[in-house]
Amino acid sequence: MVRLRSIVAVLATAPWAAAALSHAASDAPQQPVFRSQTITVQIDAIVQDRDGTFVGDLRLEDFELLEDGKPQRLETLLLVRAPQPQPVEAPPPVVLPGPASVLTNDRRIFVFFFDSEHLSAGGFKRLQAAALDFVSKELGDGDVAGVVIGGALANGRLTSNREELRAAIARSMPRPDLASRAADRRDWPRFSSDVEAIQVLAKDQATLEHVLTRACQDAPEMCAPLALAGSAATGAGEGRQIRGEIAGEMVENVRNEIRQKAQRIVLEFRTSAASTLQLLAALTRELARLDGRKSVIFLTEGFFADQIIAELRNTVGAAGRAGVAIYAIDARGLNRSGDLTADAQQSDSGLNATMDLFSDGPNSLAVETGGYFVRNENNFARALSGIARDASTYYVLAYSPLNQSFDGRYRRVDVRVRRDGVKIRARRGYVATQQRAALAVGRAETAVVGTGRQAGPPLQSTPLDAAMLAPAPAYSGAASSASATTTVGSTAGPGEASEAEGIRLRPGSHDRIAELASAASATSRVGSKTQSWEAHARTGWELYERGDVAGAEQALGAAAESQSAAPWVHYALGQAEFALWRFRKAVEAWERVRAAVPEYKPLYFDLADGYLQLNDTDRALETLRQAESRWPDDPEVPNALGVIQTRRGALGDAIESFGRATTIASTDALAYFNLGKAFELRYYRSRRWSNNARSWMADEQDRLAALENYQRYVQLGGPFEDSARRSIQALTRR
What we know:
With 734 residues, the protein is α/β, with parallel strands linked by helices. It has four domains: 41-86 and 99-177 and 271-446, von Willebrand factor, type A domain (Rossmann fold), CATH 3.40.50; 179-269, no CATH class; 460-466 and 473-608, Serine Threonine Protein Phosphatase 5, Tetratricopeptide repeat; 615-734, Tetratricopeptide repeat domain (Serine Threonine Protein Phosphatase 5, Tetratricopeptide repeat). The protein has 22 helices and 19 strands. The chain has a six-stranded mixed sheet, with helices on both faces. It has a five-stranded mixed sheet with strand order 5-4-13-1-15. A four-stranded antiparallel sheet has the order 3-2-14-16. Helix 9 (360-369) links the parallel strand 11 (324-330) and strand 12 (373-374).
């Protein structure tokens, strides 16, 4: 169990668990295929004329593709298009040679990604309404979709069930703590916009002086000395000189306060943006297991990307590798007031009202992956309709790169059309990893592109790189799991597999409950051995798997009333209560499970999550300490303890916990990353400006310890390597 493992959680509160995906084999008619005896790369392309109409008569020779500036030989051109309506009594179509192999796009894939790190309550509500409208009006019968909110995929799967999607979107909520960012900005010394903080940190002297003037107006006592005691005994000239020296020192102290606050604000920008990008990259890696074009609709108010270029490039590369097009929608619309950043407003420091530093990140994600960025638009429903059309018809070009040494580097791709009067939109690169570059899933020699089907056995799961971002948020649809069991959304009882209207990207609660159900025995039941509760329990779990969490809670609650209900029933009830924000009831249900099955380790992490949502940090820590006493050799537990302690601000305790994790497992890379981050946070927290030395002073031992642990993490390798290297660089520069 790893949901509380990474210290990134302290700054992100976004869980992902280990991921799984399976597809049933299909007996559908044979479709065009891409062979992959050598590694093949596929690029989606949308070609439109000047009026924005799709150009559908292009041939392979009309395209030109360069990789890192070198021309490549295109091997296959496929036109994927929406189904064409036919008259009822129309004769069979005559098959004639066409400009490209044509594949009917009978399944589109959409994922709504609510950027919880960068969405105010107002922006969230506007986009939520548009997403509900999209599901009702735009989602076709063959389409599948999912909702990511707070870093979790609702119900752990993509689904074609509109009611399930609508329920997931409707019960989603913005993060309740984001308003504190704006409140902090308004605290003394006050910043009128986040851009001011960026400018101050960039050593813009004019902006610094504007903020200083405002600070002295808001709190005059911070900038000028009071009348000096005993000044009558001092000459008038000498008194003025002394007061002037004191005033000068006080003003300089205010400048340093402003610099420190600007540094803190920009560090928050960097951390929240990095968290968002890590989650996006993790999502794209999971979507790579599905063939065809995947459209991620990134709903945001923008983020500051200047200090996270490496993460941005990695996310873009992962999306390019996975056939994911990102469409970003700016929730601020035309009205930029009252949002998280307020950066486009004219501030009293004289900053240009058109300066929008928070659009660059979403714009790069969209343009680089073949999507587009919707901004200055209040009609979000219209914007989503355009995205639906974009996902319906497109070209797929396939080529075998001349450079077949897939070394993990980002490769630039430039697609051109040899025809006047048209414009092309395609992803601009990918990360050349050792995995197959082709986007179809299943056995390489029989992979079908664009159908959403695969030949051969189901894929087995691999851990999700950003899985270590916890604790779980209140707005996730289901608890996560570290199991690697492949699962399709089940409508049967726990432990029984059956096909449903979903594609499970992570096994979520299903695997844990199946584990508890299969391990149930007379001695591990809550009460006696009768089975009168089973009908309600199975109905409840079927409803939960289908996304009807409210119905599941009622049925599971009825089953749990029986004194003979097995522990898995109470565990499932807790999951449903948690998804409905009823955290106290979730904890109560899980405590009943702990009383019956105290040796079930994952439960302790769930309980810790629940207590955190109740703001009961003491109980969360107590629960994990009990787990540590039971499993003293498991590094996951001290890692989780350290994450909570960091969130609490107890960095000394966190450092001790992460240190235990590295002692238990000397090759646990993430523990070193966490330890390095804790030392880094404590180092920056200790920084103080020294007027005498005219420089920043801090605990040098913490800086060296942070460097040592980051370097160890880089040696071992892991998904946060870019973040570690960036911290190493910053700590080295000081």
